[in-house]
Amino acid sequence: MGSATAAPGKAVVRRPLSRDVRLFWCASATDALGSQASGVVLPLLLLGLGHSATTVGLVAGVSTAAGLLLAPIAAVPADRGARKPVMLWSALVSAFAMGGVAVAAAVGRPPLVLLLGAVLVERFSTAVYEAAAAGTVALIAPPADSPRVVAGLSAADQGALVLGPALGGALYQASRALPFVADAVSYAVAAVCVGALKSDLRPGEGEAVFGGAAGSEGAAPGGAAKEPKRGAPGAQTLPDVQTLPGAQSPAGPRPSPPRRPALRAELGAGLALVRTSPFLRLVLIWTATVNGVIVALYYGAVFTLQKGGHGGAPMGLVLALSGAAGLVGSLAAPHIAGRISAARLLVTVSWLLVPLAAALAAAKGPWAYGGLFGVFCLLMPLVTVVLQSRAIQETPPALQARTGAVLATAVGSSAALAPVVAGVCASRAGTAAPAVASAAVLTLLACWTTYGRVPARGVAV
């Protein structure tokens, strides 16, 4: 698959992206915009209803944990061939859940259990949607277009990070129900876009639904038999079953129907692939580490700015500058990757992040934080877009959702742990400690990418 991408320094032929790619991008962009618009005001709604900051944190923590736990489970039916129905119905459920929050916010003082229930339903269904969507790019775009598609999806997320909070705040000023109405509409638009996809979002006829291609590193753990796609030629063939004398006789023994692998084995198939693939391990370690670091740096900035007497507006400035820089980085990533080898880009960006984190330890004002975070977020997509697009190409279609869920869970776990680590560091060693610790972690990561046993051939494009 690596030959599908142009070598560094050579011109890349740009074909128009397909209708399904545009529809999928529209679904992702509107979903991200609505989620940012409602997510930024949900704490304000809870606080405005008289709930404590502890309650707000509990709602956020429980909903995040729910997503991390559900994603690997939801990936199994998606990889079995139900990707499109899973995405469609989860988007519709999310739309109804956010509609419920909007109605509750409009009628007065809704009970906390009602709001929590609606938020959890939305988080559950969103986790299901994201897990199923993880394998969609490989099924709607050829390998050569993967960097462009991934870059477009990343740019949509960064654009939503810039526009969503401003949109949510403006709508909340008009009516506290409007941001949640907007989120419900965004989920409905996503459902319409998914329903309009013409691509068959199931593994190809020659792909096993469990364990990847024959002989690949993604083989089913424990030697479990692979299941052919339903309706595929040879679907009735049973592996490891010997024909007995007299089997053609009506009185002879009848073969048992094909058995699915145990659910536990199917849930672990994505993890088994990541564990046995050096390149996917690289993707997991690099993305989880860098995402955890940037969350820790953000909370370090919050602690420092709060100690300096700054309010919420400066943090909005930091987020806006970071999102805008990330948008530029995402759009530039495919062009830069076509001119610089991915292995060199990985090492270079890894080392450039170290002095940025160290400089954040000495930053004081919001403009300094915004500028440094902007450069940080400008550099990150240059690597993440390349790594993610290559991971899509390296993963068998029948394991796309489960492998994506493993990577997303690792990134989400590091992002969830980072605020705790940042808080402990700040309380014991000062507000600059999270940045100092982050610079040390990034130094170790840069050394590993430079001198460790990194699969450079798997990174090269």
What does this protein look like?
- By secondary structure, the protein is an all-alpha fold.
- The protein has two domains: 1-8 and 17-201, Up-down Bundle (Growth Hormone, Chain: A), CATH 1.20.1250.20; 265-461, Growth Hormone, Chain: A (Up-down Bundle), CATH 1.20.1250.
- Helices cover 71% and strands 0% of the residues.
- The chain is built from 16 helices and no strands.
- Helix 4 packs across helix 14 (400-429), helix 10 runs antiparallel to helix 13 and helix 12 (342-360) runs antiparallel to helix 15.
- The longest helix is centred in the N-terminal third of the chain and has 55 residues, at 53-107.
- Residues 1-12 and 205-258 have low confidence and may be disordered.
Write out key terms for the chains shown:
Growth Hormone, Chain: A, 71% helix, 461 residues, disordered N terminus, globular, mainly alpha, single chain
Mean pLDDT: 74
CATH superfamily of the largest domain: MFS general substrate transporter like domains
Summed up, the domain count is: 2
Which fold does the CATH topology of the largest domain refer to?
Answer: Growth Hormone, Chain: A
- Element order, helices and strands? HHHHHHHHHHHHHHHH
Q: Tell me the fraction of residues in β-strands, as a range.
A: under 5%
Terminal residue distance: 10 Å
What is the top-level CATH class of the largest domain? Mainly Alpha
